[in-house]
Amino acid sequence: MLKNGCFLALILTLICVSCEETEILNNIRVLVKGKVLDQNGVPLPNANIEVYTDANVFSADRVLVGLGESDAFGNFKITSLFGPNELFYIDVSLNSQFSEYRYLTNTEEFTPQNLIFDLETLQLNALTTFTYNIVKVNEASNTLQYNFMYLDPNCTEFYEEGVLNTQLSNCNVIRNRGATLNNLSPNAENASFKVPLQSQIEFTYSLNGGDTISEIITVNEDNYEFTFNY
Fold it and tell me: What is the rounded distance in angstroms from the CA atom of residue 192 to the CA atom of residue 226?
């Protein structure tokens, strides 16, 4: 594993040949720190911490400026390069079985106090795959409208000069997934999406334009499978 000094030297070398618009200040380093827990408050070791900066949202010059992992207690401290760019973000992830977190800010005219980005305590939720099969078993000509309403497990927080902007952030967002099934397209088979373990999904459906019926599904096991026949 590269030491911080070697890593920063390597990144500076790569910057010279990989980007022309994204600006890096050679004389400034920032400290990125925080703690990663799961949904039960248990520390998560070996979480990946990646720090990027980019000239603007339309640029293809995203530059990796910091990299590290959380320790056995879920804590992390990373020395990162820094620059006055439209996008500066810190990605925290573990693996495909956990949700992801992103800290996003604009550093064109903002430098953090004491050159420290303190993310404090972050939560990554254990995930499960929700797989559903909706199958037409009735020979009659039926039309089914269905929808799953669920919690998006990932979180992006947008900060303006160190203050959280809840309107531009995307955390605890409710998503919807649904369709209309009929004789031409009768089934929805082996469709899936990720949700937090122990979360609830609201399944609603209407047959032939009739009343909407609602059912609450508690996703309490790994690789949860749901089957509905109509």
Answer: 10
Give how many domains the chain has, as a whole number. Answer: 2
Backbone φ and ψ of 145, nearest 5°: -105, 130
| CA 171 – CA 173 distance, rounded (Å) | 5
100 with 133, same domain: the answer is: no
Q: Which amino acid is at 210?
A: G
Amino acid identity, residue 212?
T
Backbone φ, ψ for residue 87 (5° rounding): -120, 130
C-alpha–C-alpha distance, residues 70 and 36, integer Å: 7
Residue 163 inside a domain? The answer is: no
Residue 210, classed as helix, strand or coil, is coil
Q: What share of the chain is helix, strand, coil (3-state, %, to 5)?
A: 10, 55, 40
172-215 pLDDT, tens digit per residue, is 999 999 999 999 999 999 999 999 999 999 999 999 999 999 99
Rounded Cα distance, 163 and 112, in Å: 11
pTM: 0.84
Domain carrying residue 223: 127-153+172-229
Dihedral pair phi/psi, residue 8, rounded to 5°: -65, -40
What is the tens place of the pLDDT at every residue in 104-137?
999 999 999 999 999 999 999 999 999 999 999 9
Residue 164 lies in a domain: no
Contact assessment for residue 145 and residue 89, using Cβ atoms and an 8 Å cutoff: no
- Letter for the amino acid at 40? N
